C-alpha cells in the first residue's frame, strides 16, 4: 500500500522539534514513512488522503501495562498496592489459565488499546501461578493477528511473596506461611533459559512488531542473580528489561529494612542497571537515586492514574527531567487504572504535577507529556529507532484526527487541545506498520464483536474463580494491613541515604 497525506497539520515529535503542528505532506510506502515535507508530489499509484482539517500524530506508546488485569477492570477500589495485589495477583488458589483464554483476553485488551490510539504496548504479562510457552504463544499470536506492536514479557517473581515485604510474615499463621513458601518458584537459571528460548521463538514476529522482554517483577521480589542476569541478557539482545521499582512508601521501607540502602543503590551494587532497563513507577526516590538512574541511562515509566487510584504517591517529574532521565507514560493494568487509554494518562500527567510542585516553571509542558507518550515511551521500550515519531525511515505508526469536532472548536493550539480537550472521539484512523487497523472507530483486522462475545463467554467462569480466590486470599488481609500501617507510619532514614531531609518526595 502507498498512501499520500496531503496538507495535514502534523506533529512529528522528532528530536529537535516541538509539539506545535506544521502543515506538511507525508508519503507512506508499505510499512515505512518515505517522505515528509512541504509541497511534496504524490506518485501515480498513491492513494491520496486530504489532510485539510486533519491532525496527524505518532501513535501512542503505552510504556507500562498488564493485559492480564483486563479481567479485573472495575472490580476493586480503595486499597493500597500491597493489599490490592492480594486479590489481583492472588497468592493462593489461582488456577492456571488456558492458552485459548489468554488469547481471548489479550485480543480484548489490544482491541481497546488500538481503538484509543495506542499503537505500541509494553505488556508486562504475568500468569499465575507461572507462565508456560503455550500461554506466551497465545499472547504473541493474538497481537500478531490484531495488528498491534508490543513488547511482551515473561514476568517472574522468584521469592515467596510474603517475604517481599517487611513485617507481614510476623502476623501470619505458620500453616499459611508454610503453604506460600512451598510454592514452586523458578531459579534464575530456569528463567534465563526460558527467556533465551522465548527470544529465539518470538523476537521479530509480526513482521518485526513483536518482541519478548525480560521482566523481573521488582528488586525485592527476585533473587540478585536473576536481576543481574536478566539485565545482562536484555543488553546482549538489545531488548527491554522491565522492572517495578519504588511504587509505594512500603517499597522504600523495604529497601531500608532488607538492604540498608535504597532499591536503586541496591540494583547498582549488583550490576542490574543499564540503558535497556525501564523502571515502572519510580515514585519514592531520593535525589541520589535519580542521579544513579541518569548515570546508567535507565528509563522510568510514569503511571499517574494508577498511582492515584492506589494512593501510591506522585512521581518527581521535574527532578527526573532536569537530571536527564527518560520518562515514558503507562496506563498500568486495567485493575489499578481501569483503562488502557493512554490519552487519559497524558492529560493526567499534564495536570497532576501542577499540584505536585507549586512553581509554575516546574510544571510539565504539553510538549513534554506528548513526547513522553510517544517518542520517549518508545525509547524506554528500546523501539525509538523504529517508532515514536514521524520521520523518514521509521515505521508508519500514526493517528489521524478529525479537526471538525467540538473537541477542536474553536481551533487554538492543536497540541494543547489534543491533550486537554480531546477524549478520543475525534480519532478517524489508526495506522500500524502502514496498515489502517482502525477506521472511524471500527477494527479492520478482526471481527470486533466476535472478540467481545468470545470473552463474555468466559465471564461466568471468570467471576466464579475470582470470587473463590478472593475468599481464599482474605487470610492475608489482616497481616498485610498491619504491614502497610507499620510502613505508613515508619520514618525513612533519608539522611543516611542522601544527606538531605527532603530528598524523598512524600505525597
TrEMBL record:
A GO molecular-function descriptor: hydrolase activity, acting on carbon-nitrogen (but not peptide) bonds
Domain Amidohydrolase-related: 55-437
InterPro entries, alphabetized: Amidohydro-rel, Metal-dep_hydrolase_composite, Metal_Hydrolase, MTA/SAH_deaminase
Protein name: Guanine deaminase
Organism: Citricoccus muralis
